[in-house]
Amino acid sequence: MQITDSKVLPYRHEGDFYFSYGVKAFQQKRFDKAEKWFKKALELKPKHPLYLSQLSVLYTEIGQYHQANDLLQELVNHHGQAYPDCFYLLANNYAHLGLFYEAKKYGNQYLELEEDGDFKDEVVRLLGMLDQLSAEEYEEDDFDIDSMDEIMIHQETAFYHLEHEEWDEAIEILEEMMTVYPEYFSAKHEYAYALFRKGDQEEAITLEEAWFNQDPSNLHSRLNLVYFYYEYGKISEFNELLPTLFNVYPAYEPQKLKVAMTFARVNENEESLRRFQQVSRHHVSNYLSYYYWYAKVLDANGMCEKSEQIWKEGINKHPSLQSFS
């Protein structure tokens, strides 16, 4: 008997089939395979809460906090407050991004929904840590609290473009922040850095020197100018300013990282290595630049095996880092 095409029925696996393969790959830390299977499951059931949350957990595991939060927000949009654990996951991700106001907001939402939930202790500890870190990060800034949500969205977007060296996109966001939120001082220093990296070096130096003259104690200006002077060949200015960094030891982890990377950029590799060793990896794992510069500094100091380990870890968390090699 001849079977015609009309008698052949297409067979489609249910989402759980693909999802189970994703879970197995995730447990084996084969994150690229796990992502593939989870996405296939979501193709069949795009709003499935377990599929969305598990893929978000994968992205958190590899440091892709922006993508993780996109999925969690989608889950909340589809299912409301039926899955309160999402608010804990959002709080955790925003904390890793350094977006403390958002992290506290979602942490408090979790506690409102789950007074004795599975993650209660973790959230309470997280909120306590955020209270301390928020005071350190924003001690120089005076924001209208009603504007904080918008500032955080802009800050997160600018951070993404800066980390991926997308200078035009970063400059556009930072220009808007400087106009709408002039009290957010960090934006102008990030803007100068993006300008310099894009190639507008003289303008970047002029801007940063003006800001430094207004506030010689500002760490952002000092770090930018040390790097600018080194790259631009203003050797006397560089030699005068560089020694002032050796006694600077910030308490806030992202600032520690910026100091370590600045020493790396100006080829002060021994000092840079000391500074990297004082940075808590847990708090800066969302930075592609952490892995890039730490690996380079380790290699420059003859620690090739450790350098390769850090580089592989960075690729695992941030696959786009491969394009930086």
UniProtKB/TrEMBL annotation:
This is Tetratricopeptide repeat protein. It comes from the Bacteria. Coiled coil: none annotated. Gene3D superfamilies: Tetratricopeptide repeat domain. The lineage of its organism: Bacteria, Bacillati, Bacillota, Bacilli, Bacillales. It holds the Pfam family TPR_19. InterPro entries: TPR-like_helical_dom_sf, TPR_rpt, Ycf3. The keyword Chloroplast does not apply. TPR repeats lie at residues 15-48. SUPFAM superfamilies: TPR-like. Keywords: Repeat, TPR repeat.
